[in-house]
């Protein structure tokens, strides 16, 4: 008996709540189409013919859960976009999932989260996804999205790129170590002019006086300057090569002097 009474009371309460907001699908005769199904929420302006001849879905965010197009695509009332299976997160304006977790050590079907490119099948696609063991992947793929395509350009004309730094000072600034099989630096003014007959080679005595006064070799920066400003690899390699070439010339001179001394000693020994 108590259960029956409780059921009747709950039914009356539910019917009272529902009747407080009627089921609704109507056109207000102006620009708005209203839709409401109270068991699922208050509803509101489902379609609006807005200014500039714009069709608006869920005008003003009346549907508090946002707008879903089809089964997978959601548009939040805050302007965020997401696909089914990705949780709404205040730290993300847009959130899209691929069909795989991206944790495999190699790329597999479904790793591409989004691709962009021209119309038709003759344009490579810019792809963004997660693969190679949960790593972010950005690259160019062929039109059929089956193999890597052409080059990827980052800020091709102006602007700087930073890795590990929010304030890049050069076209590419890296706050950390770089590992590569080879680095090629384009340069001019390779110092083979040191070997020209008219090159004025500083004497070792002059170099000694410079070191005693300045604490470093000529043309090389001081230690504190190098630590603060860094060094340009191309320019530094040219300076170091120049010093090696100058040192080679000094060694050649000393070798000739030693040979001359040896010949004099040999002559004196033979005269005894």
Name the features.
single chain, 272 residues, alpha+beta, 4-stranded antiparallel beta sheet, 4-stranded mixed beta sheet, 4 helices, 13 strands, rod-shaped
Q: How would you spell out the order of helices and strands?
A: HEEEEEEEEEEEEEHHH
Strands of the biggest beta sheet: in what spatial order?
A: 1-2-3-4
Overall shape: rod-shaped
Point out poorly predicted stretches.
5-19
Span of the ends, CA to CA:
142 Å
Number of strands: 13
General description of the model:
Strand 9 and strand 10 form a beta hairpin. The protein has 272 residues and is an alpha+beta fold. The strands form four sheets. Strands 1-2-3-4 form a four-stranded antiparallel β-sheet, with no helix packed on it. It has four helices and 13 strands. The longest helix has 39 residues. Among the domains are: 91 residues, no CATH class; 80 residues, no CATH class.
């Amino acid at each position: 008996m108590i259960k029956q009474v409780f059921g009747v009371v709950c039914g009356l309460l539910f019917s009272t709540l529902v009747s407080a907001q009627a089921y609704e699908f109507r056109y207000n005769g102006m620009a708005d189409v209203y839709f409401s199904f109270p068991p699922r929420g208050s509803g509101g302006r489902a379609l609006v013919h807005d200014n500039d001849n714009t069709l608006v879905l869920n005008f003003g965010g009346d549907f508090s859960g946002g707008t879903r197009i089809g089964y997978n695509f959601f548009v939040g009332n805050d302007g965020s976009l997401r696909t089914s299976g990705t949780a709404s997160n205040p730290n993300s304006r847009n959130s899209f999932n691929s069909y795989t977790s991206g944790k495999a050590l190699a790329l597999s079907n479904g790793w591409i989260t989004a691709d962009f490119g021209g119309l038709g099948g003759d344009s490579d696609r810019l792809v963004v996804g997660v693969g190679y063991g949960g790593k972010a992947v950005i690259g160019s793929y062929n039109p059929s999205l089956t193999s890597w395509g052409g080059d990827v350009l980052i800020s091709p004309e102006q602007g700087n790129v930073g890795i590990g730094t929010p304030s890049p000072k050069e076209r590419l600034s890296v706050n950390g170590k770089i590992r590569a099989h080879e680095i090629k630096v384009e340069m001019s003014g390779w110092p083979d002019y040191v070997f020209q007959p008219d090159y004025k080679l500083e004497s070792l005595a002059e170099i000694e006086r410079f070191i005693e006064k300045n604490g470093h070799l000529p043309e090389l920066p001081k230690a504190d300057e190098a630590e603060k400003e860094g060094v340009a690899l191309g320019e530094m390699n040219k300076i170091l090569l120049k010093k090696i070439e100058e040192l080679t010339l000094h060694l050649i001179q000393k070798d000739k002097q030693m040979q001359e001394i040896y010949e004099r000693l040999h002559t004196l020994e033979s005269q005894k």
